[in-house]
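Lab notebook, entry 98. We have the chain sequence and a SMILES string for zinc ion, and the next step in the workflow is to get a structural model of the bound complex before anyone spends time on docking refinements. Request logged below.

Task: model protein plus zinc ion, output structure tokens.
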Amino acid sequence: MKLTTGSLKEAIRRIVSPRSEGEMDPTVLKQMARGIMTTRPDEIGCLECFEQVDQFVELTLADKNAAEALPLVEDHLNRCPGCREEFEALLAALRSIA
Ligand SMILES: [Zn+2]
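Result returned:
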């Protein structure tokens, strides 16, 4: 197909058309809505969790109350299977060398 100015304009119009909003996958929208609703204002993200998870592991290994010292990390670990896995792997690794 030969690309003419006319067909290029048509392609751009299709991309920027507000009509495309209604074409969003409803399951994606549902997931987005659920994500917003379960987000607490004081909740931390995976990045913050990752930055503090080593402290959390150290406290756990020292038999200290890690959940009380770092409640937001505890909260995130309960919600996020990925970070939970990371935490458990780190805990197991440090336990094995302790
Ligand atoms: Zn996470």
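Notes for the group: Residues 46-97 form one domain. Worth checking against the assay data. The chain has two domains: 5-37, 46-97.
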